[in-house]
Amino acid sequence: MQCGGFGDSKEIDEDTTTLCNGLRDAIQTKLSTTFTVWKPETFQTQVVAGVNYLIKIQVDGGKSISVKIFKPLPHTGSPATLISASNI
Hints:
By secondary structure, the chain is of the alpha+beta class. The chain has one domain: Nuclear Transport Factor 2, Chain: A. The protein has 2 helices and 5 strands, in the order βααββββ.
């Protein structure tokens, strides 16, 4: 992880997939659609007062979406939240 900006793009891992899946309903609501294909592919992180995740997810029709998720520091007890979602 890199302070001040997003780090290099990495292949998706289990923790980030779990994070995406946990916010799938919020992402679909934000984009006003429902996806049958849902395959997180790559992600970048940015250290802030927690961690921002920028995640690329493959969806229906071979298209991709980009989502930004904020995961607060563990001691806060707050859940991860969706910041933005857009088509690529």
